[in-house]
Description:
Elements: H1 13-18, H2 25-32, H3 41-45, H4 62-83, H5 89-100, H6 102-111, H7 122-126, H8 133-151, H9 153-164, H10 178-188, E1 195-202, E2 209-215, E3 222-226, H11 229-244
Antiparallel strand pairs: 1-2, 2-3
Helix pairs in contact: 4-5, 4-8, 4-9, 6-8, 8-9, 10-11
Amino acid sequence: xxxxxVPEDRPSSxxxxxxxxxxxxxVLEARIGYRFADQTLLPLALTHVSKAGVSGRVxxxxxxxxxxxxxxxxxxxxxxxxxxxxxxxxxxxxxxxGLVRRETCAAVAEAWEVGPHLNLGPGEVQTGGRRNxxxxxxxxEAILGAVFLDAGYAATKAIVQAAFRPxxxxxxxxxxxxxxxxxxxxxxxxxxxxxYEVVERSxxxxxxxxxxxxxxxxxxxxxxxxxxxxxxxxEAARGVLAREGIGGTQGQDGTRG
Length: 257
């Protein structure tokens, strides 16, 4: 083979994904269930500080996140107050904490498929920022803040009720997953939140396999495997839920009927 026959280095799969055209924001608006009048708000809600440029944090979603966090808390609290008239303050607080926590907000952002729309700096893209649970949770709140500025509290509350479902007896948000269910179960018993750790990583760099352990105080650890840490964590949590018989017939106070 001559030098001319040597194929040029091809970009990695991650780089190729980063170069794909970004879907239009109208697609995201349809998933959220809201069409923005001010077309500058949604792009701002999707802009990470690493992409904000010279404007810094003011040009990122952080101010909208601050606002959206407060609006989310109020909308969920009002909905819970109306939906559970016989619930005591402690139960309402537990439900509120479960619905506004980072994991729930990230699950809602994933249900909206926010990841491909995020405006991230190169470093965040290379380190998997589009799947980063903290970024997804922050952007979920920022989007709610943007809706509040665009259309007020009533429109934002409608989105919260559709995406987080605070009025349902199960307290389950859209996109609720095994990790959220396990954490809610632990919180209802005043236990520390479940802890996840990587116990093994195998396979090549382009196709890794993660083995994750989840530890909950008072019960045996659960284990899960997957092509990403997130998938493996879900499998580990799902295994504990199945093994311990958690869910299905839980009562309002978290005890099994």
